Amino acid sequence: MSRCISLTILTVLFLAGISYGHNGRRFEVVIHGDKLVAQGYNSGADDQAEKIRPYSNAIHDHWSNSPLGGAATAGLPGFDLFSPNQVMLGHDLRLNLLGAKKWISPPSMPMGNTVPDFIPLDPSEVIFVHDGHKVIDTNKLGFIELINSIEAEGHRDLDISYEIASEPNDIIFALEFELSTSFVGIKHSDTIYAILSPDGGNMEDRLHMSSLLAERYLGTPIPEPSGVFGLALMLMVQRRLRY
Prior knowledge:
Layout: H1 3-17, E1 25-32, E2 35-42, E3 55-56, E4 58-62, E5 64-65, E6 72-74, E7 78-81, E8 93-104, E9 118-120, E10 127-130, E11 135-137, E12 142-147, E13 155-158, E14 161-164, E15 171-181, E16 192-197, H2 208-218, E17 220-221, H3 227-240
Parallel strand pairs: 1-7, 4-16
Antiparallel strand pairs: 1-2, 3-17, 5-6, 6-14, 7-13, 8-9, 8-12, 8-15, 10-11, 10-14, 15-16
């Protein structure tokens, strides 16, 4: 299957499900000080990590191999903006793709002091990212406009699709993003890592524990939860975590 055909098929599958939104591992967009932050959280089934991650700007999910073979797609991590700051109203929110890297053959049960050995992607390894309207990829980079004009009631299920013309096995990818807004008083985020791990029938095949370790390694430490940032986290718990 050619890369072009694969992308077309996976786009159709993605568009069929995007309107529903879905729970799972996601990022909530908040402002800490004067900087955008993507706080990872899990509104789905227990994944042996904290529902609200104790670090920001990193969370993982898993590829789903195409039933047609030769390709894989992922619909998470997605984004939410529950409580926008008033200064952001009417401005946009962009997701800028900066690059990607990979960790080949990570241990299935890593020790706590394991250091992930991330290396650059091969030129032939291309990961596509799109929102049903615009496509960017790890060779051409670029941005996706998550929100054209931020509204006071906020925005949820800002989901994008990740696609690759292969079935990743024994490898963890980390896509590097940055959030920005047209309001000049808010700084771009630090690097955000959307970590994508293999499909598989069990935790070992899916490299689940190594994925959680990669989250902790790549994530940004969170300051003591206080003020606006702490309030944002509490609101997130109340609004999205439903079990």
